[in-house]
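Chain X:
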Amino acid sequence: MSMPMLKRRWTVDDLEDLPDDGNRYEIIDGELFVTPAPSMNHQEAVIRLHSILAAYLDHQPGVGHAYVSPADVTFSRTRTVQPDVFVVPLSAGRRPRRFDDVGRLLLAAEVLSPSTGRADRVTKRVLFRDESVPEYWVVDLDSRTIERSTPRDSRIERIDDRLEWQPEGAASALTIDVADYFARVLDD
């Protein structure tokens, strides 16, 4: 279960003291969150979403590059997360080698699992709004929806048909057929 671990205020430096045990360790506002390894459907959802984003970004020169976790996104000494899929802007026309090279995200996406629901829907949504991430998506395999939120609007948009995304600098929008995406992920 993705729950905060008790301790004084955690920092990025404290991560060096934790075991390399297959768990994902994230720090949000000084709290440590530990998440177990994901399921096969979770990983399929991550891989397919990354593939869609990467293909789109390949045709949008100068916009950004898509990554999957594990990869640290460190906003401050008390805020480091590992979104399942995320897009960073390019740095001098090239993909950045470190998050510090760009310091911001164009998109963050999490695929829900039983142990991460509250953290993904509440804690991380607040974090990504605070950090001015233009779009945050929560992929819900059970309801076959993608929840979209932005820093400009506190409402959550639940999408089950067609998701459009056009990051800053893109010449055209990405359109995802949400029903088809879930049918492929869940092998329907």
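Chain Y:
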Amino acid sequence: MAGKSADATSTPPTPEAQLRGFIAKMDSKDQALFRAVRSAVRRRLPTANELVYDYPGNLVISYTPTELGKEGILSLAGRPGDLRLYFGNGPRLPDPKKLLMGSAGMVRYVPVESARRLANPHIEALIAGAIARSGVPLATKGRGAVVIKKDGASQRPRGKPKK
């Protein structure tokens, strides 16, 4: 049609494409780690929704049975040179090896240097505990959706932290 631009008929990017774009703003080493850990968490929680929050300098994915972040079971938080796995109900999780860090009221975290860390039996026990203590059960079938919770269009590129 005359007068219509190509942009008017183009399809908006999918949430998965938007998430990939957010990850692409990270340094290459951080990208690789974030993708690997995301895949490992996704395999463990295939029916959870991935709620994506793209903040300046920080990318967070909350894994939740609903579209409410407060019901998150696990969350990944990545910033330059630092990836953390957060556990919902963290303060109430049994942690005999004292792996959990932080003092927030609802969550605790472990630093993640590689996706293999999630296969550690003590980390796996923490993950199982977080799932068991979730206030809302995960679906038994299907695949969770990627849900962009904050518009990343206005966000700054991720790079080395400013000194």
